[in-house]
Fold:
Amino acid sequence: MGLHKILKIVALILSVAGIIFLAMIVAKGDEVVQATGEGVDGYLFVAYITFAIVLFFVIVFVLKGILAGDIKKTLITIGAFLVVVIIAYVLADGTPMIKSDGTMMSESASKWAGTGLYAFYLLAIIAVGAMVLSGIKKIAK
Structure:
């Protein structure tokens, strides 16, 4: 029995289990589920199992691809990403803020939120720049 067939069977079992738990949640009604959270545990359990399986296969195939490919290029790419994150961390402001629910965001959380935003902006600028440069090179040819 191949891996593909095994995965199809596991996917079918998880799908049926998810449908059964969803039907149980719907049958209990909104008020019961909101008041007690009853019936949601099984549905979440199926989601956690599915997430764990997907995460496992992603890690296995990423490591397989890294080991089969050029490790030097992979390490250079990871290093470049870390440089972008470090630059974003340096640029980020760590001022504590009030969240929408009225609680205070810590200085550290604020710093990391700003780091994420700056990293996104830097990576977006790099991506757009790479596309523009590629287009200019194609036009030049």
The radius of gyration is 23 Å. Residues 1-69 form one domain.
